[in-house]
Amino acid sequence: MSDESLTAEEVDTLLEGVSTEDAERAAAVGRPRASSGNTIGPQVRPYDLKVAPPNPQRLPVLEAINERIGRSLGTALERLLDRPVEVAVQPVEQIAYQDFIAALEQPTNLNLLEMGSLQGQALLVCEPALLLGMTDLLFGGSGHGSAGLDGRRDFSATELRIIQRVVGLFIDACAAGWEPVHALSLTHRRCETLARFAVIAQPQAMVCSMAFEVRAGESAGRMVLCLPVAAIEPVRRALAAAEDDAVRARSPRWQDHMARRIQTAEVTLSAEFAHASATVADLLRLKPGDFIELDLKPTVTACVDEIPFFECRYGVSNKRYAIRIQSFLAARNEADSGEQHDRQ
């Protein structure tokens, strides 16, 4: 070992470096800790365990429902305003309710809707510019309304009546759009202008935001339907089934595949020419050379996997017994059932 020792200057330098590292390490470890007592530190956010965690599962069938709503809404608004109306459907978004509310302009038109068979409430947001433009159109103007309420806290009585008509048309369009999947009956409860008076979900709860861009004349704006994700959970299976049906219906490749599989499936075809009844005693008396008389009919029934399917005539073809198909029993049964229904 070397006999050289550290000088006093070198020892002080080493001690200074160690103390600095210890202080930085202690500060890094203590930074995320909460302060003393029950107060929550700045890095900690409260979380409500009663609210389901975000689970944004995409349901393309909602896009198809919105397309039907948009078409029905456009037709209804054209009849109301007596002029062409364009409705552009926006993609469905799943976001937290607090983020949905934060993105809204204040004040605005908020309509609380009861969802009938589904639990909870929905929220229909209509931008003031669109509603004021429609009011201008109905009174003979070009639809160039103001961009907002211009300092007002509420809509006038005339504007509220027009809003109720527009909301009623939207409710009818929703019923038509949801009809193939689920009978959704919305009921208008009340109208608000401030979001704190129109709460339909917990701040952290996930909601589906479905927006429709409406343009008529010089008026333009959005109508946004907000549905809590928890409210549509009971019909999620129906939505998934409708999605599968829609995908299969739109897929020629799937249809061709199923057609080939059906055409190559093997079935058993059998035809009973005649039958005879006999007792056990008759069978015991039979001996070689005896004949069993059969009552042959002019036609026989051919069965597919024991299900009557064809009415046929019988004969010989290429030195083999054969049957010739005369008619389909399924078509005859449908015709007979239709005649019985007509008689009733």
Task: Quickly list its features.
single chain; alpha+beta; 344 residues
SSE topology:
Layout: H1 8-30, H2 60-81, E1 86-89, E2 93-96, H3 97-102, E3 109-114, E4 121-126, H4 128-138, H5 157-178, E5 187-192, E6 206-216, E7 219-228, H6 236-250, H7 252-263, E8 269-272, H8 280-285, E9 300-304, E10 307-317, E11 320-328, H9 329-343
Antiparallel strand pairs: 1-6, 2-6, 3-4, 3-5, 4-7, 6-7, 8-9, 9-10, 10-11
How would you describe this protein?
The protein has helices spanning 8-30, 60-81, 97-102, 128-138, 157-178, 236-250, 252-263, 280-285, 329-343, and strands at 86-89, 93-96, 109-114, 121-126, 187-192, 206-216, 219-228, 269-272, 300-304, 307-317, 320-328. It is an alpha+beta fold and 344 residues long. The protein has two domains: 60-247, 3-Layer(aba) Sandwich (Chemotaxis protein chec); 266-276 and 294-344, no CATH class. The strands form two sheets. Strands 1, 2, 3, 4, 5, 6 and 7 form a seven-stranded antiparallel sheet that branches. A four-stranded antiparallel sheet has the order 8-9-10-11. Strand 9 (300-304) and strand 10 (307-317) form a beta hairpin. Helix 2 packs across helix 5. The radius of gyration is 38 Å and the shape is elongated. It starts with 7 loop residues before the first helix and ends with a helix. Residues 26-41 and 50-56 have low confidence and may be disordered.
Quick take:
With 344 residues, the chain is of the alpha+beta class. The chain contains 9 helices and 11 strands. Helix 2 packs across helix 5.
